[in-house]
Amino acid sequence: MAGNDTGSMLTADERRFLRELFAESASADSSVPERQLVIEAEEGQDDFLRHLTESGRVRLLVDDDDKTFQYTLHLDPDTADAGALRLRARYPVLIDRRGRARSLRVRPREGEVRVRDASGRLQHPDVVDISTSGIYLSDSSARGLSSGVRFSGLDLRLPNHEAVRVGGRVVRVRRSGSGVGLAMEFDRRQLDRQSRTALRRYVFERYRNHA
Q1: Is the pLDDT of residue 147 over 70?
Q2: Containing domain of residue 23, as a range?
Q3: What is the strand order of the sheet 163-176 is part of?
C-alpha cells in the first residue's frame, strides 16, 4: 500500500543523502582495478605447478637496465588448492655480475636514519650506509670496539617513524684519525617479520628513489 511505502517516509534531504551515499559507494567500487600477473605454462609443464605448490615459492628475475633484481614470490596457502594461485612478492635483492644475490645497500641522508644503542657503547653513531643484512656506522666514541663484538639492543629509527630493533656483530673496524667506522652484520634471528619488512621497504624505496 502507498501508506507503507518507505520512500514516502523520507524527507527530501534524507533521500538526497542516500543517493549521494550510494553514488560514493559505486565510485569506490569502480576505482582502479587490482593489477594481476598471469603466468601460463607451456603444454606438458604440469611439473611447474606441482613444484610450485610443493615448495610454496618461486624466484623471479627482472632485468632493469644494467641491473637484475630477484624477487621471491610466496604462494598464498589459502589458494594452494584453488584454480588460480596467488603469489605474494617480497622486496627484491640485487643479483651481481657473477650471479650472486646480495642485499641492496643505500646511503641515507644525514640524520635520516637514527641509531640508539641500549648498551651505551655507541654514543653518537652516524649511519654511513645500510642494507637489509647490515649497517656501517661512524662513531668517534667507539675506539675500544673491535671485530667480533656483539650488539643485541640497537634501535633503528627509520624516516617513516618505524622503529626496528636489531642485533648483530662487528665484522670490520676502520680507524682514521679520531674517526672510527664500524661494519656490522645483522643477526637475522633477532629480526622479527615486521622489522624485516620495514627494513626492506626503507632500503628498496631509498634505492629506487635515489639510484
Answers
A1: yes
A2: 1-31
A3: 105-106, 126-131, 134-138, 179-186, 163-176, 150-157, 114-117
